[in-house]
Specification:
six-stranded mixed β-sheet; two-stranded antiparallel sheet; Rossmann fold; 10 strands; alpha/beta
Length: about 210
């Protein structure tokens, strides 16, 4: 586990504890990693990209791909540092969500993936489903996924190489329990939902309209 990543997140105000968070997956928990707090600090973000590059420098990589939005910043910095390490250009591209919430290549980026060795990266994994969608899209597009790397893995027991079907690693691990709403102890204790980060605001608005 790389404590440097967690320290950078903490210094930028990106780790929230003892709260009642609604995650992207819809599950609830008490810990939130606000990676958006990290991104304005370019030195930190560059360093995360450098750590990704260093940990994958022995692989043959032509392209770094990640899901939008946060992944755009990380793939750019990772490709930049890999290019310097390998002394040749490594491209950085990203996928976007379509109407069915799949991660697809737009903007002609599919042409940059075909027959290329691709490193897929992501900022956070809670369920790992988003990054798995990128892996599948790269394969469908004719690219070869050489590895998956994430900045922080929140569920190392379930999100791993077996799930991805390719070598998987994380720069840091910060375990966080995630509960279905019906089983959430924070809900049962009546702890107010955090509407500043995560999907708490949308969740409460949706509840109003039910």
């Amino acid at each position: 586990m790389n404590n440097e990543v967690i320290e950078m997140l903490k210094k930028s105000g990106g780790v929230i504890t003892d709260s009642h968070i609604v995650y992207t997956s819809g599950k609830h928990g008490s810990i939130y990693i606000n990676k958006d707090a990290l991104y304005p600090h370019t030195e930190f973000t560059s360093r995360v990209g450098e750590l990704f590059a260093e940990s994958h420098k022995d692989l043959e990589i032509d392209v770094v791909a990640a899901p939008a939005l946060g992944g755009i910043i990380l793939e750019t910095w990772t490709a930049y540092h890999l290019s310097k390490l390998k002394n040749r250009e490594v491209l950085g591209i990203y996928t976007e969500k379509d109407a069915e919430k799949n991660q697809i290549f737009t903007r002609g980026y599919d042409k940059l993936v075909k027959d290329k060795n691709v490193l897929v990266i992501e900022d956070l994994t809670t369920t790992g489903k988003s990054v798995l969608k990128v892996v599948n899209t790269v394969k469908k597009t004719g690219g070869n996924v050489v590895a998956v790397g994430v900045m922080v893995n929140r569920d190392p027991e379930n999100v791993n190489s077996d799930m991805m079907g390719v070598p998987f690693s994380s720069l840091a691990v910060l375990k966080a329990e995630a509960y279905d709403e019906s089983e959430c102890p924070l809900c049962q204790q009546g702890i107010p939902i955090n509407t500043e980060v995560g999907h708490g605001k949308k969740y409460l608005e949706a509840k109003k309209h039910k």
